[in-house]
């Protein structure tokens, strides 16, 4: 009887450890000081959002787009939204104020670093894109495309806090796992 209990206990422990290991392989850590990013954004937030002429429009709706993302899609959505900001938003935004421009450049450089980190995960086949993740990022691009380029870039920069909070939240959950 004791041998059977011990065998069952060992089997259960092996299954639990296997499950934890498999879950860990599907996630990619982003070792980034998100607090620094948030501080940089807070310094320019008011100036950026003051330029937003479409207060009732959202591109990156926190409740719809990001909150419904499943843990298995976090890597893919993060990778796609980082690319969205680097390839479109930061390039489309035109800024004359040197202080704001420096802060945006700092954030953009941090995003490039995060992209490289996620690229390594993708090379190791640990960052998969399911249809739901692709649809979520497609929705962001469609929202962006509905506005004039400059207005869309300003709107997206003004909503950067939503994306930064989502990265921080998901990074903390991944770190605790």
Automatic annotation (TrEMBL):
InterPro entries tied to this protein: 4_helix_cytokine-like_core, IL-10/19/20/24/26, IL-10_CS, IL-19
GO CC term, one of those recorded: extracellular space
Biological process terms in GO annotation: negative regulation of extrinsic apoptotic signaling pathway; negative regulation of low-density lipoprotein particle clearance; positive regulation of intrinsic apoptotic signaling pathway; reactive oxygen species metabolic process
Subcellular location(s) of the protein: Secreted
Transmembrane segments: none
MF terms (GO), sorted A to Z: cytokine activity
Disulfide bonds: 28-121, 75-127, 75-129, 76-129
Key words, A-Z: Cytokine, Disulfide bond, Secreted, Signal
Signal peptide extent: 1-22
Pfam families given in the database record: IL10
Primary localization: secreted
PANTHER family assigned: INTERLEUKIN-19, INTERLEUKIN-19-RELATED
Function statement: Immune regulatory cytokine.
Family: Belongs to the IL-10 family.
Protein name stated in the entry: Interleukin family protein
Organism placement in taxonomy: Eukaryota, Metazoa, Chordata, Craniata, Vertebrata
């Amino acid at each position: 009887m004791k041998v059977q209990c011990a065998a069952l206990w060992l089997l259960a422990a092996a299954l639990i450890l296997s499950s934890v290991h498999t879950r860990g392989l599907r996630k990619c850590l982003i070792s980034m000081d998100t607090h620094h990013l948030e501080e940089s954004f807070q310094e320019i937030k008011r100036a950026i959002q003051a330029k937003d002429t479409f207060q009732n429009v959202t591109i990156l709706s926190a409740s719809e787009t990001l909150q419904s993302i499943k843990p298995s899609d976090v890597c893919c959505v993060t990778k796609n939204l980082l690319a969205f900001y680097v390839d479109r938003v930061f390039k489309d935004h035109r800024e004359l104020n040197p202080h704001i421009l420096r802060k945006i450049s700092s954030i953009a450089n941090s995003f490039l670093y995060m992209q490289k980190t996620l690229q390594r995960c993708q090379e190791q086949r640990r960052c998969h894109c399911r249809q739901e993740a692709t649809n979520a990022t497609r929705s962001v691009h469609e929202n962006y495309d509905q506005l004039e380029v400059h207005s869309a870039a300003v709107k997206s920069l003004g909503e950067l806090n939503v994306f930064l909070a989502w990265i921080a939240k998901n990074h903390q959950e991944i770190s605790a796992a």
